[in-house]
Amino acid sequence: MSDMPVTNPLPSLSRRPRWGWLAWEMTVGYISKQHSPDAALKLEIYPMTHVVGWSAALLWQDHQETVRDQISFADALSALWNRVDQYSGLTFGEEALGRTPERYGDEEWLDQATYTALSVLVNTTDTFFTGNWSIVIVYRPLDVPAKRLTARLIAQDIAVNRGASGATLREVCRALYLNALPDYRKYQSPE
User: Fold this and answer.
1) Which pLDDT belongs to residue 14?
2) Please, how many CA atoms are within 13 Å of residue 91, restricted to the half-sphere of its CB?
3) Using an 8 Å Cβ cutoff, are 14 and 99 in contact?
């Protein structure tokens, strides 16, 4: 037996996620495990005067924190984290605190492929259904990856109602876009 003191290595803290969206997914996963298995992150995208509006909500148990009428994806998710951090009463362990969705710049929320998929979905929808549409995207940290994200497009006074699901934000945006293609064609203005 050695007289050398025994040291146990400290557990390594997970690195901060590169993208803010991934930090939100990790945070909702933490809330689901530690506070409420029904935790979810909800985004709603809709037309406002001269801009596209964004709302974001964190839901768990019978609680909800929401921000509305933001002018970008980044603004909505940043404002939601500020609200959650100040008012929710949720507690986070040291490791989870290192992965929260705070201090991400405007260009640090999505990788380029996901940003493109989301932009194409939103811009195409706004072009074809001007002033009469909404897209809702919900993330839940479920065991089945393909069901973690769901999305729904509602337009033309509910005449258009399309849904999709996927494991990633990119997948669900692409799937919803493909599912809505017949409606985009149907409501395309004649040239």
Assistant:
1) 59
2) 2
3) yes
